[in-house]
Amino acid sequence: MIAWRITKAKRARDLTGKGAALDGGRWNEVDVPAVYMGLSPAICSLETFVHTNRYPLLPLKITRFILPDDANLYLEPNPRTLPEGWAVIPPDRASMAYGTKWLRNTQHLGLIVPSAVLPLERNIVINPAHPAIAKVTIDAQFDFMYDQRMFLKR
């Protein structure tokens, strides 16, 4: 399986999940490590853009990861079984509790979920505490920057 991630250049290879643990995220509570990736470069761009309020000043990288091809390592729940309000902005306790319970269970390497930005796309939350994290490799890395038109005032 291929997954993508856009980060500051200095964090491009970091799979510890410490960044997400600092503030928590849609699928993890504070102090619970998680690594957020998208299953396409386009959804990574949208997901990171919605958290950006100005043109980035630091260099960014988009990294393509190769995840182990064992279906048993991944959980993809039916979207109808996700907690009510999982996509609300800002993220609420229900989705954070759901993901935290999944992360602490350490049964799966990845949790595949719809994107709150574009539910037709899918993201994957990687559990850095799962033993298979050692099998995640970097396939390629590219410089990344948003198109300047995305920041034009309209």
Keyword list:
154 residues; four-stranded mixed β-sheet; three-stranded antiparallel β-sheet; 7 strands; globular
Shape: globular
The SS-based structural class is alpha+beta
Query: Which regions contain 5 or more consecutive residues with pLDDT less than 50?
Result: none
Biggest sheet, open or closed, and with what strands and sense? 4 strands, mixed
Radius of gyration: 15 Å
What pattern of helices and strands is seen along the backbone?
Answer: EHEHEEHEEE
Strand elements, count? 7
- Strands of the largest sheet, in order across it? 2-6-5-4
Kindly report the average pLDDT value. Answer: 95
Distance between the termini: 39 Å
* Percent strand: 15-25%
Give a written overview of the molecule:
The structure is a single chain. With 154 residues, the chain is an alpha+beta fold. The protein has one domain (2-151). The chain is built from three helices and seven strands; from the N terminus they run βαβαββαβββ. It has helices spanning 18-23, 41-49, 93-105; strands at residues 2-8, 35-38, 60-66, 74-75, 110-114, 122-126, 137-144. It has a four-stranded mixed sheet with strand order 2-6-5-4. Helix 3 (93-105) links the parallel strand 4 and strand 5 (110-114). The longest helix has 13 residues, at 93-105. The model has no long low-confidence stretch (mean pLDDT 95).
